Amino acid sequence: MVDLDPDIEAWIRKMEAPEGRNLTDAYRARVDAILARNLAASMHELWDGLGDVQRTLGRASDASEKHAAALVRWTKVSVFAVVTYTLLTAVNVWISVAAMSK
Q1: Residue 5's closest CA among 28, 37, 29?
Q2: pTM value?
Q3: Residue 40 CA: distances (Å) to CA of 43, 48, 68, 98
Q4: For the chain (length 102 residues), average pLDDT per consecutive 10?
């Protein structure tokens, strides 16, 4: 069973009591007011939580964008290094072959 607010439990007990049967509508109105207050507080907490999630997702998106840019940059550096190494190796082989043919 759901744990109720102690105020609500007290008002429900008052409604169930024999002397409270004539005032049931007033008691129900009081319980509704308490529930509305609790709902408003819960909605405020939810709204704040969603704001926190939005800010966190924004920061995560920014970080992801920076990481992707760094990955692209280092991929370009890596490709440049591989092409340079390949060309230097080809030049070295060409020089060696040219030196042997003399």
Answers
A1: 37
A2: 0.50
A3: 5, 12, 42, 86
A4: 65 69 70 83 92 95 95 97 96 86 74
